[in-house]
């Protein structure tokens, strides 16, 4: 039984299509002046078939005349929709052709020379990631990591009218969720919140979720460090001053289940502060067995090994899968 042959014919376009064992990879030009363009269109169609081979069956083509790749794709997609009862749409965005089905992007064809990013994306190219903190030190660490991944990083200082979110949770995850999910709903943006803290073994995990207010609600970093040294004043052996920094990261976006990752950074508590970098308990936190505090590391060194860096590494691994899930 011979498969049905479909035809499109106009002044500058004439092509035939057949599903199954049809014409095969044939492309015939009747206009020598268009030979280079003909080759380009045919190579584009082969790329289209290759990209969509696991999603739909595209027909074999015999092309006699062609003026526009968009016309050819429109003809082909019309056949596919009719044959497979699909709802694939062809969209033109700033000269780029997009195949979309039920809000899922299937294929993008860029014209020779590409397209302008501002016109294609309709504004800012980089997606904004709002860090749920007013702490510029913490923001610098996240910015150094996420700007390399292509994100524009903002923090709550860019949104002075947003209310403070009370950290009423008793775990790191509860507090991070409260901040990320509340601010995401208020702004409509993708929000990253962390709840981080220092946990000292001999103190039963304190200061933990109270790390930022260990010495009181409005305590400074110096006051918190002094409080910690006071609590450990009778612990004379370094091995008994084991501790670790913990981070839980939560990424929230409206109408989507939040992404949660966590990581630890082991070390010890020093007998006196050392170093001028970092913030919080960094001057007291001895990194592993190195004998150096976190405050003696450069930002680049810290971002290769810290609790946040380890948590972000997990986040980067999970993030594409999280983004691809239906909301």
TrEMBL record:
Residues forming the catalytic site: 195 (proton acceptor)
Pfam families for this protein: Ham1p_like (PF01725)
Magnesium recorded as keyword: yes
Catalytic activity: dITP + H2O = dIMP + diphosphate + H(+); XTP + H2O = XMP + diphosphate + H(+); ITP + H2O = IMP + diphosphate + H(+)
InterPro entries: dITP/XTP_pyrophosphatase, ITPase-like_fam, RdgB/HAM1
Top enzyme category: hydrolase
Family from the record: Belongs to the HAM1 NTPase family.
EC number(s) given by UniProt: 3.6.1.66
Record keywords: Hydrolase, Magnesium, Metal-binding, Nucleotide metabolism, Nucleotide-binding
Residues that bind Mg(2+): 195
Organism: Streptococcus massiliensis
Coiled coil: none
Function: Pyrophosphatase that catalyzes the hydrolysis of nucleoside triphosphates to their monophosphate derivatives, with a high preference for the non-canonical purine nucleotides XTP (xanthosine triphosphate), dITP (deoxyinosine triphosphate) and ITP. Seems to function as a house-cleaning enzyme that removes non-canonical purine nucleotides from the nucleotide pool, thus preventing their incorporation into DNA/RNA and avoiding chromosomal lesions.
Cofactor binding note: Binds 1 Mg(2+) ion per subunit.
GO MF annotations in UniProt: dITP diphosphatase activity; ITP diphosphatase activity; metal ion binding; nucleotide binding; ribonucleoside triphosphate phosphatase activity; XTP diphosphatase activity
Subunit record text: Homodimer.
Domain of life per record: Bacteria
Gene designation per UniProt: rdgB
A GO BP annotation: nucleotide metabolic process
Cofactor: Mg(2+)
GO cellular component: cytosol
List of residues binding substrate: 133-138, 196, 279-282, 302, 307-308
Protein's recorded name: dITP/XTP pyrophosphatase
Gene3D superfamilies tied to this protein: 3.90.950.10
